[in-house]
Amino acid sequence: MMRGNNKEMIFERTAEKQYFIEQLRYQIEKETISIATYCIMDNHIHLLIHSELKAMIDALKWINIKFAGVYNLKYKRIGHVFQDRFKSEVIDTEEYLIGALRYIPNNPVKAKIAHNVDSYHWSSYKEYTEAKSGLVSLDEREMVLGLFSNSLEQFKKFHLEEETSEFLEISEDLEQEREERAKMIINKYIEKFGMKDIKELSKNNGLLEGIITELLKKSYLSHRRNSELLEITRGTVHNISKKRN
């Protein structure tokens, strides 16, 4: 993941997104990196890269310098364009790989700037579903679709499912995502069991253990924050957490 310095919208315009893609394509053609999936947002980029570590570091460093030079010249500014160096983590299991494949192109949907994963232009999704040429190599496409028995229908259906695992993300966005996920879980319980509000739900001991267990498993929020959202004591959340362990 690479992010604009001071949360700047460095990819707000089409020209900046296109130029960044050109630099990625150059590195792909040099065979320093291979991309399995990607998504370019207005202030950050997610890339799922297959590469040797040193080759990836050198490629992204080169892209950073090239992009920053052109960007600063164009907008008559100085200083860093990207915040620090890129952030990265190793994907070392098939389960983690599959989750990341869904998580990355769904970023615009989570950010509420796209209605669905298919409607966002600046991601790799359509390179799979419509076999459009782009940044994803034929080898990577074949490998990814092989995880879905080479079925596009399975691939598309998978991208519509909710992803509760957490991946590399901007810290404040991650916290907001956790809050939204927790509120969605609470609202589902209220609707499912015909409750008026959180207070009524929290008084139902039969449901309370179930919802707290689900919140602890899926929201990744602290005991304190979960107790605040449910309007109950932190001790109640803690006691149910101990039962899970």
In short:
With 245 residues, this protein is mainly alpha-helical. Helices cover 55% and strands 7% of the residues.
Beta-strand percentage range: 5-15%
> C-alpha Rg, in Å?
21 Å
Q: What number is the mean pLDDT?
A: 87
Query: Distance between the terminal alpha carbons, to the nearest Å?
Result: 34 Å
Number of helices: 12
Give me the count of strands. 3
Describe the structure.
By secondary structure, the protein is mostly helical. 25% of the residues are buried. It is globular and about 60 Å long. It starts with a strand and ends with a helix. The protein has helices at 14-29, 53-74, 94-103, 107-110, 125-129, 138-146, 152-160, 171-192, 198-202, 205-218, 223-230, 234-244, and strands at residues 2-3, 34-40, 44-50. The chain is built from twelve helices and three strands; from the N terminus they run E-H-E-E-H-H-H-H-H-H-H-H-H-H-H.
What distinguishing features does this structure have?
globular, 12 helices, 55% helix, mainly alpha, three-stranded antiparallel sheet, 245 residues, 3 strands
Helices and strands, with pairings:
Layout lengths: L1 E2 L10 H16 L4 E7 L3 E7 L2 H22 L19 H10 L3 H4 L14 H5 L8 H9 L5 H9 L10 H22 L5 H5 L2 H14 L4 H8 L3 H11 L1
Antiparallel strand pairs: 1-3, 2-3
